[in-house]
Amino acid sequence: MKIKIMLRKYSEVLKKLLSFGKYSSVTYKERTITLGENEFLIRVVEEKDIKELLAVERDVYFGQVPWTRTAFLTELRSFAPHLYLVVVYQSEVIAFLGVRAQNRDAHITNIAVRSDFQGRGIGHFLLEQARDFGEGQHAEQLSLEVRLGNKEAQRLYRRFGFVSDSIMKNYYNETDEDALTMLYSLKEAEKSQ
Ligand SMILES: CC(C)(COP(=O)(O)OP(=O)(O)OC[C@H]1O[C@@H](n2cnc3c(N)ncnc32)[C@H](O)[C@@H]1OP(=O)(O)O)[C@@H](O)C(=O)NCCC(=O)NCCS
């Protein structure tokens, strides 16, 4: 009898370990969008995409990868509800977004668009997906950190409806750069719909 109970417990733990990471990835229906003359596929990130995510990072961060393979893996396998998306153009990953919900906050962990695809509305589209995710999670706000010197990204966020919140001194370890935190109220977005 004791052995039976132990075996059952063991199989429950094993099941949990095997499904690790599948619990909290939110369902997202793959879709295509047309921007200008080009068609893009939007789908959830798979672990096999990480190599390409790193390539997008290297492209936009001057050869650096602020997010390593391990960082991506940790996020993709997280129990916190999350949505990681890639934008694919002709079988190549050209952009990605990461957003994770905790309490009443949906935090954008990462957003990047390969430099040759910037300025076409992909960043804006990805922010809309983050907003839909946040609303689906009943979050009250979207939040993000951005380098104080990254005026281009800040302009996009402001145009979308984000407002500045606070400055975090020396937030980025490698460069000691400050971060600006920005917030987007989902409650107000709800009201205006
Ligand atoms: C920030 C970033 C994600 C924005 O992505 P993007 O795809 O270029 O964003 P969008 O195209 O939606 O918007 C960028 C600008 O192009 C404009 N734009 C969008 N579609 C356009 C079109 N069809 N024609 C002309 N301009 C267009 C937007 O109005 C916006 O202008 P603005 O900056 O004056 O507001 C991208 O620049 C990037 O990856 N940067 C490097 C990584 C980074 O800084 N990430 C953010 C970390 S917090």
Alpha-beta content class: alpha+beta
CATH architecture designation = 3-Layer(aba) Sandwich
Average pLDDT across residues? 90
- Identify the CATH homologous superfamily: Gcn5-related N-acetyltransferase (GNAT)
User: Tally of extended strands?
Assistant: 8
Give an overview in words.
The chain has helices at residues 2-18, 50-60, 69-76, 122-136, 151-160, 186-191, and strands at 31-35, 38-44, 82-89, 92-102, 105-113, 141-147, 163-172, 177-185. By secondary structure, it is α+β, with helices and mostly antiparallel strands. It has a single domain (23-191), classed as Gcn5-related N-acetyltransferase (GNAT) (Aminopeptidase, 3-Layer(aba) Sandwich). Strands 1-2-3-4-5-6-8-7 form an 8-stranded mixed β-sheet, with helices on both faces. The termini are far apart. The model is unreliable at 18-23 (pLDDT under 50). The site of coenzyme A has 20 residues, from strand 5, helix 4, strand 6 and helix 5.
